[in-house]
Automatic annotation (TrEMBL):
SUPFAM superfamilies listed in its UniProt record: Phosphotyrosine protein phosphatases I
Record domain Phosphotyrosine protein phosphatase I: where: 87-212
Keyword presence, Ion transport: no
A Pfam family annotated for this UniProt entry: Phosphatase-like_N
InterPro entries xrefs: Phosphatase-like_N, Ptyr_pPase, Ptyr_pPase_sf
NCBIfam families: MSMEG_6209_Nter (NF046112)
Name of the protein this chain belongs to: Protein-tyrosine-phosphatase
CDD domains recorded: LMWP_ArsC
Keywords: Arsenical resistance
Gene Ontology BP terms: response to arsenic-containing substance
Organism expressing this protein natively: Thermocatellispora tengchongensis
Top-level taxon: Bacteria
């Protein structure tokens, strides 16, 4: 399927339809007893639609849609009161390609199974900043398999803490939600050497946040 501003299921190739059908089956098995097939199909196809205009990831659209739909379904379950008790932190920036991805990388690495981290962007990019990937690799954390993604209502509502980084008025605001605004330089267009101080400051802030949440770290 070519990049298009209008997503239609009829435009999908046979391979894409099969891939989405397989994804729906996997999600259905994972969320048995939690959500019905109709909800899973809706989340899967709306997730696909959100990535459909990103030509750079066109070959991986079914996989990205499945991964994002899974996150959204977990978020919806949390909103509906089906929680395992772990704190959820959402990191938001404009493109979800640099700062928020590095923050998520540190958070996931340090928190392990004790907390849940998500990230998103108000105008998500087509790929992660290579300098951010390289600088995180220097710290022993691989974020190369992550991908920029948007935020959705259920994801924001499910989060216990929303950390914003430069998205200003574009970041979602929900009453009663805890928000933290981290003023950090945007790594877009910077070299790996220039990104390192930003990376180190993000690690410091993530560690401090985990301490506030009483999440044990190595």
């Amino acid at each position: 399927m070519t990049s298009s501003s209008t997503y239609k299921r009829d435009d999908l190739s046979i391979d894409q339809r099969l891939a989405l059908a397989t994804a729906a089956r996997r999600l259905g098995e994972e969320f048995t007893g939690v959500f019905g097939a109709e909800t899973i199909e809706r989340f899967l196809h709306t997730s696909y639609e959100q990535f459909a205009t990103k030509a750079a990831v066109a070959n991986f659209l079914p996989l990205l849609a499945e991964r994002f739909a899974r996150q959204r379904l977990h978020a919806l379950a949390r909103v509906e009161g089906k929680s395992d008790g772990r704190p959820i932190v959402l990191f938001l920036c404009v493109h979800n390609a640099g700062r928020s991805q590095m923050a998520l990388g540190f958070f996931t690495h340090l928190a392990g199974e004790h907390a849940v981290g998500w990230s998103g962007g108000s105008e998500f990019a087509s790929e992660i900043n290579p300098a951010a990937v390289a600088s995180m690799a220097e710290a022993g954390i691989d974020i190369s398999r992550e991908f920029p993604k948007p935020w959705t209502e259920e994801i924001v509502r499910a989060a216990d803490v929303v950390v914003t980084m430069g998205c200003g008025d574009a970041c979602p605001v929900y009453p009663g939600k805890r928000y933290l605004d981290w003023e950090l330089e945007d790594p877009a267009g910077l070299s790996v050497e220039q990104v390192r101080p930003i990376r180190d400051e993000i690690e410091r802030r993530v560690r401090a946040l985990l301490a506030e949440l009483n999440v044990p770290v190595p």
